Amino acid sequence: MPYLPHSPDDVRRALETIGVDSIDALFDELPASLRNPDIELPPAMDETALMAHLRALAASDVTGGPTFLGGGMRRHFIPAVTPHLALQSEFVTAYTPYQPEVAQGVLQATFEFQTMMAELTGLDVSNASMYDGATAVAEAALLAVRHTRRDAVLVSRGVHPETRAVLATYLRAQGIAIQTVDLQDGRTPVPAGPDGAACVIAQQPNHLGSLEDMATLGEAAHEGGGLLVAVVDPLSLAVLKPPGAYGADVAVGDGQTLGNPTFFGGPSFGFMVVRQELLRQLPGRLVGQTADVEGRRAYVLTLQAREQHIRRGKAKSNICSNHQLTALMATVNMAALGPQGLREMAAGSVRQAHRLADRLRAEGARLALDAPFFNEFTLSTRQPGSVVRSALAARGVHAGVPVGSEYGLGHAVLLAATELVTERDMDALLGALRAGGELEAAEVRHG
Amino acid sequence: MAEPRRGSFPSIYERSRPGRRAARPPRHDEPDLAALLGEDQLRDDAPRLPEVSELDLVRHFTQLAHRQFSIDGNVYPLGSCTMKYNPKVHEDAARLFQDLHPYQAPETAQGTLQLLFELQRDLGALTGMDAVSLQPAAGAHGELTGILMIRAYHEARGEGEQRKVVIVPDGAHGTNPATASMAGYSVVEVESDARGEVDLEAFRRALGPEVAAVMLTNPNTVGVFESRILEIAGLAHEAGAQLYYDGANLNAIVGRVRPGDMGFDVVHLNLHKTFTTPHGGGGPGTGPIGVKAHLADFLPVPLVVRQDGGYGLSEDLPHSIGRMRSFYGNVGNLVRAYAYIRTLGLEGLRRVSGHAVLNANYLRVKMQRAGFRIPYQRLNMHEFVAQPPEGVHTLDVAKALLDYGMHPMTVYFPLIVKEAMMVEPTETESLETLDAYAEALGEVLERAAAEPGFLAGAPYDTPVRRLDEVRAARQPVLRFPFADEAG
Question: Which residue in A47, A105, A374 is closest to B37 by CB distance?
């Protein structure tokens, strides 16, 4: 049997040592009537058959080709060195570093991750990671609720719809009210009356791709006595003003763009970085620097009194496993690219997105919004977004995340471009849009 | 672990030199960012990220890997963690699916959706549950999902205001009470009896019309099967409570008895335990949940469904608790778990639990012979609790083991046993490895008796020795202290 080392002799020897007759005898306490039920599972496969089966499944997926998909995850450059280093088996098959003497690899890498995230966001303290961007936002809202002892939050509609859905699930259980601020011309207006709100949550760039005036939102939040929670794409921070510079108290987001493949949505990782004053409210694991008995620098999980395995019902969160390995991918990737490489990726994706927008406009297409955008924007379409997406897919182009009706923009899709997009990719997209009837007669649309 | 080093290991920042880099993204003309984005949107200074050559980068992270214990390098019998071997073929399998984007048109993701659909079905079959969601990102996240569903269920029946309490045994994982709190419940702990099982009388007293759910791990955290589980389930249901199965210990019983058949209404699985997706140094885990039919309407959206002759994602679940995360789940890990189930089949999975329990009992006997105390004198399941002899501290034994290149067991958990050592060898360790482990433990005890003070100084041969954890907590240094910030 794969992965099981025991020969029949081994089993006999073990049973003798234990003093029972059979393996089944070890299970005597299981209710007899329920034991060994008939469970319908497909028959076992050997390695060759398994991989053939999986390759056949993978072959019914369509990957590769030009892609302009965004909406929370994007395909970015990941140098070969990143997965080779991050996915070394010592990192992949380690447990949570509870024995620091033999876990300096994971601990130091996490400490370096925390440093890099603090640098990117311009804030003081990063935790070791969260599950994903959406759950990080929900945890940030709960942090703000604990810190301010208020029971309502304001969230911009510019925050990703799935993130807001997760926020609603998490906050409902604790009786926290959520007020959603509608966008004006694709951006978040200064919310009326943030008094009483534990925080204002806004996303930069927002779900429609537009750049927000985060500083003004922060001022409004602070005047009302609440916090500003900035939901950010970490890669964009190689170029954009860091949350710490515009007054954000908490920066959260999804780290996929820092060096993880999109993997049909996961695993990526979430991150949370806060001002020093919020440290004791921070959920999740934290690595701190200290020294060993010989004075050598060393790293250890610290401030664990915030966590569930110590505080149980009074912990800041129930989070236990975080997303260490995918955060390590980001750590290695940031170190591989350095400030210059990361900046080139961010600027390159801005460049390609604006180039794409220009080419679309030149062909008569209409962007749904006039607001400045980063590397993703909203395109008005003739047909519903999901129809456009399927039509493009049929022509070999992955593009067109449908924009929900809640935005009141009519039919529209998101288009993202990254530094990996080429001029030929854009040719393919434009050709596919043209063939799908999305570019002709664009001028008379909404007429 | 290669070449333990003297002196402090350098930070990636200390290897950094201005202008170096390891990787170059594709080149584009420099855009006029101020014009495109607005001057006030741009950052003033570049973030201080490391600047290293590719070889320096490789050396740094390779040497860090050498400063790390792992299943691949070391026996790692952490109780409740199920540190079994993570098959290499799973890594190849997962990579086949890594380039899919969550928002690509569903008709271009049929292979992945079929895999996810079949995994929902197979996990349902293995747990005896009617419906499964693959969304939760970790065990604790699965717990929260399950408890929120139970809450929604009580609310739908008009009992939401009345039921405000979750019962957990005193030996429960810390995530259980933390989850209950996060879901807006208060927690009542019931004690365990001398045999390590839930004290039935205490349990009866704790039950009442205010109880929303009972969270149990079975076998429980001392490695004992709750033999009166059917009675417990009956009592819980009679009181109108829902019974929650913490799947952390499923490896003990997989294929042999199903939570659904035992009367559980909700179960979460830790795919990174029983179904051997890698722990990754602390995640990503994956914590799918299964539920009985009466709770299926409350599952989080979206679900993977069959539709139009293919597979799709459905948001059409009016009573859903909502979303628990972005997108659909930790697909990379779901592929690995799928590969594991397809490799072993039912017979193989039964043998997994059989050999996991065999190994744990074998090691218990060996450790008892080596001088360790066993507080619950009975056959155990996949893990067991031991204690060092009077006068010897568990922490010291754990640290001394590190010098043998062996990872300690879980220590000081469960909280209900003093100086607890919780040991879970898993089915993938050979008897020789277990013999060597018990032998090393025996030597540690002999050394402790012969040479007082020796254990307190251990470990001696690890990359760093015991750490000043108090200093780490009192004067937290949580990021690299750059020169201009020093002092």
Answer: A374
